[in-house]
Amino acid sequence: MRLYRTGRKRSLIGLTSLIDVIFLLLLFFMLTSTFMRFTSFDLKVAAAGNEAPAPDTVLLVRVMADGSLSLNGQPARLDDIDGVLAGFIDRGVRHAVLQPRGKVAVQTLVEALEALQETQLVSVSLAR
């Protein structure tokens, strides 16, 4: 009577070569990806207060889905926002409300926030 051993079956794919391929793919994607530097900024949440700024000293900045801006209804681009804002600041505008319109990319919204924070505005609020 012959007895057969029921041992471990040998796997068809070697585990060592599979790990090598995964490591090479990981290395390839790490080296070919672009590295972005994410910027951070302070975003202050509105608190309850007694006094609200006068409506004529508030600038409504709408960010459109195509990346263009509207400053109190006046069209502008993000590149030349400093020149347009200088006119509003000279007229006494000290506060801005940033309002996204449509499906605005988050990066576009952050770029607009950064551009507004680099000006002489006292506060920048984010509206829905």
Characterize the structure shown:
- This protein is of the alpha/beta class.
- The protein has a domain at 56-126: Nucleotidyltransferase, domain 5 (2-Layer Sandwich), CATH 3.30.420.
- It has helices at residues 15-32, 81-90, 106-117, and strands spanning 58-63, 69-71, 74-76, 95-100, 123-126.
- It has a 5-stranded mixed β-sheet, covered by helices on one side.
- Strand 1 and strand 2 form a beta hairpin.
- The longest helix is centred in the N-terminal third of the chain and has 18 residues, at 15-32.
- The termini are far apart.
- The mean pLDDT is 80.
SSE ordering: HEEEHEHE
Instruction: Estimate the mean pLDDT confidence.
Output: 80
Please identify the top-level CATH class of the domain at 56-126.
Answer: Alpha Beta
Query: CATH fold name of the domain at 56-126, please?
Result: Nucleotidyltransferase, domain 5
Major sheet attributes: 5 strands, mixed
Radius of gyration: 28 Å
- Going by CATH, the architecture of the domain at 56-126 would be 2-Layer Sandwich
The stretches of 5 or more residues where confidence is low (pLDDT under 50) are none
β-sheet strand percentage: 15-25%
Class based on secondary structure composition and strand pairing = alpha/beta
Number of helices: 3
Spatial separation of the terminal alpha carbons: 83 Å
Number of strands: 5
Shape: elongated
Q: Strands across the major sheet, in which order?
A: 3-2-1-4-5
Helix content: 25-40%
